[in-house]
Design brief:
The protein has helices spanning 2-7, 12-20, 23-62, 67-72, 89-120, 123-138, 141-159, 169-192, 196-204, 209-220, 222-237, 241-246, 264-275, 281-310, and strands at residues 76-77, 85-86. It has 315 residues and is mainly α. The chain has a two-stranded antiparallel sheet with strand order 1-2. The protein starts with a helix and ends in a 5-residue tail after the last helix.
């Protein structure tokens, strides 16, 4: 068709101008920005709707419960007859216990996997191992929950006889296993983006391969690595099914990891499954707990964004 146009004496500029002036193409060019704007606007509107719903229902909860008792109380007993207690610290303690255990498991293993994939593995090994590692991220969390309850807990009970069937240790370890792919994959991406000239310079100065990995590549990719860890913490904070199945339903404000616990997400699941009637204080409490969890995860995401911008290395 182009050769026919040239044969008729048309220049390339004329053909481009004719192409732009076609009615159908002009209509699509005008329509697409509108459709894309609508998609973006719906996303923003949905986010605002979720936030305002949380705020309105949380405000209704604090019309009935003192905000001071909520923030500083250490007992969470909403089903306690005439004297219910709504001290969020008991749920926060359970959430933090599980998250800390998960991070202790996931960070060393995830970083070791990232260093191996980035610095030691051949291309073939990396193309094989990384997808297999990332399959862990695709396993449904309810499967992880049953894995924690029926496999990990009995093994841990052989080592720790005082460990209860529902405890913080088992779900914490399994949540850590679940977030290993996130840390390993994102950290490996950050380390792989470090230019080879930096590695070659360090090797030329006499550094060993391990020293290059630990003292050169790791610091150079620090912003991406820290951001991956912070995002993983945010993921662990919001985990629901594993802690609901293996953690139990006993909110306590202590640091004992062998006893039953209850996290913020597990409490929301318990009430949402029908333990409270619509319009009751217990019903509105799940929005207050959800809003608290939203604040936690928002802070973690903002922190990850700040770290990735503050310590970003540009090559």
């Amino acid at each position: 068709m182009a050769s026919q146009g040239f044969r008729n004496g048309q220049s390339l500029q004329d053909m481009i101008a004719m192409s732009r002036n076609r009615k159908g193409k002009k209509f699509i060019e005008k329509l697409m920005p509108i459709l894309l704007f609508i998609a973006a606007f719906i996303s923003v509107l949905t986010t605002l709707g979720i936030v305002f719903t949380l705020i309105f229902e949380t405000f209704e909860f604090f019309q009935r419960v003192s905000i001071t008792d909520y923030l500083f109380g250490t007992e969470w007993l909403p089903f306690s007859g005439n004297n219910p207690q709504y001290g969020i610290l008991a749920l926060i303690a359970g959430t933090i216990k599980v998250t800390l255990i998960a991070i202790l498991v996931a960070v060393p293993i995830g970083l070791a996997a990232a260093i191996y994939l980035s610095e030691y593995a051949s291309d073939k090994a990396r193309r094989t191992i990384k997808p297999i590692l990332e399959v862990l991220a695709g396993v449904p969390t309810i499967v992880y929950g049953f894995f924690a309850l029926t496999f990990v807990t009995p093994i841990l009970q052989q080592l720790i006889p005082s460990l209860k069937i529902f405890n913080a240790l088992s779900p914490g370890i399994v949540v850590g296993i679940m977030i290993i792919p996130m840390i390993a994959s994102l950290s490996e991406d950050a380390m792989s983006s470090v230019p080879n000239s930096i590695r070659e310079g360090a090797l030329a100065l006499g550094a060993t391969k391990f020293e290059v990995a630990i003292k050169v590549v790791l610091p150079a990719a620090l912003s991406g690595i820290i951001a991956s860890i912070v995002l993983a913490i945010s993921r662990a904070l919001g985990e629901t099914m594993i802690v609901s199945l293996a953690g139990g339903a006993k909110p306590t404000f202590d640091f004992n990891v062998t006893e039953s616990i209850q996290t913020m997400t597990a409490y929301i699941v318990q009430v949402s499954s029908g333990d409270a009637g619509y319009g009751t204080t217990i019903y509105y409490s799940i929005y207050a707990v959800g809003f608290t969890l939203f604040i936690f995860t928002l802070i973690m995401n903002l922190l990850a964004h700040y770290i990735s911008k503050r310590f970003r290395e540009e090559y």
